[in-house]
Amino acid sequence: MTATILVVDDERLIRWSLRERLQDEGYSVLEAETGAKAIEQFGRGVDLVLLDYRLPDIDGLAVLERLQAEDPDVPVIMLTAHSSVNHAVDAMRRGAYHYAGKPFSLDEVSMTVSKALETTRLRRQLRALRRAAGDHTSVEGIVGDSPAMQEVKSLLARIATSPASTVLITGESGTGKDLAARALHGASDRASGPFLNITCSALAENLLESELFGHERGAFTDAKTRKQGLFEHASGGTIFLDEIGEMAPALQAKLLRVLESKTFRRVGGSVDIRADVRVVAATNVDLREAVRAGKFREDLYYRLAVLTVHLPPLRERAGDVELLAHFFAERFSSEFKKPLKGISTPAMQRLRLHPWPGNVRELRNALERAVLLCDSDRLDSRDFEFLSTTTVEHDTFRLPASGIDFRELERSLVIQALERARGNQTRAAALLGMNRDQMRYRVEKFALSEVRRKAAL
Ligand SMILES: Nc1ncnc2c1ncn2[C@@H]1O[C@H](COP(=O)(O)OP(=O)(O)O)[C@@H](O)[C@H]1O
Ligand SMILES: [Mg+2]
What we know:
Layout: E1 4-8, H1 12-24, E2 28-32, H2 35-42, E3 48-52, H3 60-70, E4 76-80, H4 85-93, E5 98-101, H5 106-136, H6 147-161, E6 167-170, H7 177-186, E7 195-199, H8 205-213, H9 230-233, E8 238-242, H10 249-261, E9 263-264, E10 273-274, E11 278-283, H11 287-292, H12 298-304, E12 308-310, H13 320-335, E13 342-343, H14 345-353, H15 359-373, E14 378-379, H16 385-391, H17 406-420, H18 425-431, H19 436-445, H20 449-456
Parallel strand pairs: 1-2, 1-3, 3-4, 4-5, 6-11, 6-12, 7-8, 8-11, 13-14
Antiparallel strand pairs: 9-10
The structure holds adenosine-5'-diphosphate (ADP) and magnesium ion.
């Protein structure tokens, strides 16, 4: 497809020479001699804009802003007769792709145009791929390059195509269990079939049973008609049973029967129906623990656990916080149509240090909030101010390497508490469950008044 280029300049000669050259190179060219016309033409869909800095009606920078707001993906190359560094910086800040001083050489313009178009094409392609990945998710939709996640992804890819059908996904809340289940479905040969999910804790036992298996007419008081359940609707596809640990024991037994015999009956029914579904179950509780506590059937546990994929907490995925932060920043910047240049180094540092008890979900929400509320085109440390207040009091203290003696351990804990409390001894004491005198005694014993003063600065 030929790219369409909009040339905006009030000088006819310039428009003409650009058009000749660009048409020669196979582009189709639209022209505008004013800012108002440019905005109008832009609405017809163009792939790139060459924009004069000085226009008779609207200031070129204002036009640039308008176009960027409408579609930040279309590159704009500014042309100017009086090039100045300030202008260039202004233009770049507002999202111009390039800034060319007049008189420019046509060769230079033509090269910049082709480079800009290539960049946009790649960017769009990447976005489309990611969007596709986000919708019905191939395994690639899972962002993460840490060794732990590489292992998870390769395991998912292998399981997806294996005939063994039942899979258990474990991991803390927010680690991506839903996403992994969809990825598994998307990468399997069931991808064209349905993916249906249900949260086991959301329904009372009898409702869940009829949701899953359907019911015959008259099976119970409210069963006025026959109803198909998820196992029938999902035929040829995947059923995702979330929070499987919350399933009532009687239903656990029925589920086990389905998994073993590959058949089920509707509630109140007497016919065995073949179940052509892959069951993917997820849990954020330790099922072995639940088995020990008598809350979860051991036989079902062993049936489910044959193929287990464990999603590690975000704090154990070195390097992924950066990757995910960029990924979500880009996603929300395009979703909210807020052009963003990136994340500042201090902001990234802050994200790296946060413990992320809510895992990827918490990170995703943090980026959503930051992008929504930030008032510049770069996310800065203060855009993540809200993170610092959340967990400090509750998270655990680091313990020194083993082999350390008690005195060292005590000293280390006191220092950490003082640092967290910014030198406030009363607060530091509270963090360690001591009273103020006990803290003061230790500050003296370890000669830590220095730490106190430094931290107070
Ligand atoms: N590795 C990942 N890459 C991209 N997005 C992720 C990843 N892990 C989780 N998410 C996103 O984070 C949010 C929470 O994930 P979800 O799968 O619902 O977690 P869980 O089911 O484990 O609580 C979702 O919006 C999900 O798309
Ligand atoms: Mg979930």
